[in-house]
Input
Amino acid sequence: RLHRFLLPCHTPEMIIALPSVSCIVTCYSEGDAVKRTVHSLLEQSYPGHIEIMAMVDGVQKNRQTYNALMACIPQAKRYANRSLVIVPKIHWSSFPRFSVADGFLQ
Output
């Protein structure tokens, strides 16, 4: 699929030199709508590697969103220069103000 994004001016050396981009998507109660977000990021015209990190907040109560993201994995694997990482975050009752970013950084 990479060839779709290449222009005649893109040489192999230019593609190797392109930095990777990580997109962090925080998810809570999106359900199947999260698939549109993932699809949009997979279809970006940037020819370098894009890593999509979907942070699923409160995965125990947010199963529909988690399952929708899991269903996106086969689609993401069809893109040579894209990756989808799903990070389920569990709510801990003793840390009610624990944020998604904090859970990722630990």
Notes: The helical segments are 12-17, 34-42, 63-77, 100-105. The two ends are 34 Å apart (CA to CA). The CA atoms of residues 60 and 90 lie 7 Å apart.
